[in-house]
Every structure is written in C-alpha cells, then in structure tokens.
C-alpha cells in the first residue's frame, strides 16, 4: 500500500509540474490555447491613430474626375455613372494626361455620345405599342391569380415586358434630370 501511495504522490507532483509548464507556455504564446496541436490566432489590436494606407491610382483618378466635374457644375444622378465616365476617360489616355479642363471638355462630348437622338428615337417610337402590348398580355389574369403569386410568363408576355422595359429606358434617356 505504501508503494501505491508513493506512486500517487509522484504522479500528482508530475501533474502539478506539467500544469506549471503549460501555464508558462500559454504565457509565452500570448494567451493562445495549446491543445490538440492547433494554434488559435490572437487578433492583433489596431492603432486608431496609425496612418491610413495611400489610395491607389484609380481611386485618386476618380477623385480628380469627381472634383473637376463638381467644380464645373456637372452632376451625375448615380455614382456608377461617374465611375463609368472615369472608365471612359481612362480608355482614351493615361491618368496623368487629364486635367480639369480636358475632363469637362470630354464630358460635353460624352453627353452627346450617350444621348444621340438616333439611339433614342426607335425605342421612344415603340413606347405606345409596348404599353398596349403589356396591357393586353395581362388581360387574362384575374386578381385572384395575381394574389396567389406569379405565374410563368408566356412568350407573348415576355416580349411585352421587354418592350415595356425598353420604352421606360428610352423615356428616361429622352428626359434626363441632371
């Protein structure tokens, strides 16, 4: 019995020694758990006063374009249109070759390029036809069917919906509110 007690005390001492070593290892690793061979990453604290990373060339260019357009009194309805215009500028010359005056000059030609009457006229002429086609395509659907949910569209309904979308786009392009 004495031998068993001696073995138990030596095992307990070994366990305590291992716990001390494990605590020291955890301290060394920085609080990360050391179990099963997996390391847990500790999230690094970020300094709120650290300098920000410099913007890339594209961001700087779009800022220059936006500033030039704002100073020139030109405004886009959507930010996406401004970025599309900047992409158009980039396709013509390098970033460094554009200044405020040339950006405004190119904006004038870009407006005429995007609002050509020949592009608007065919779609605008179809607007009354599209509205009539959309009305006739939904004639057979009752209000109960509309409440239940959307039914699969027939080819005729799809064509009418497409015409209605094109007419709406043409009306918006013909009457821009900038």
Q: Which structural class do you get from the secondary structure elements?
A: mainly alpha
What's the helical proportion of residues? 55-70%
Quick check: average pLDDT? 77
User: Residue ranges: pLDDT <50 for 5 or more in a row?
Assistant: 116-123
Structure summary, number of beta strands: 2
Query: What is the count of helical runs?
Result: 8
Radius of gyration: 35 Å
Shape: elongated
The H/E string reads: HEEHHHHHHH
Widest beta sheet: strand line-up: 1-2
Q: What fraction strand? A: under 5%
Distance N terminus to C terminus? Answer: 97 Å
Largest sheet features: 2 strands, antiparallel
Q: How would you summarize the topology of this molecule?
A:
Layout: H1 2-29, E1 34-35, E2 38-39, H2 57-71, H3 79-92, H4 100-114, H5 117-125, H6 127-137, H7 143-148, H8 155-174
Antiparallel strand pairs: 1-2
Helix pairs in contact: 2-4, 5-8, 6-8
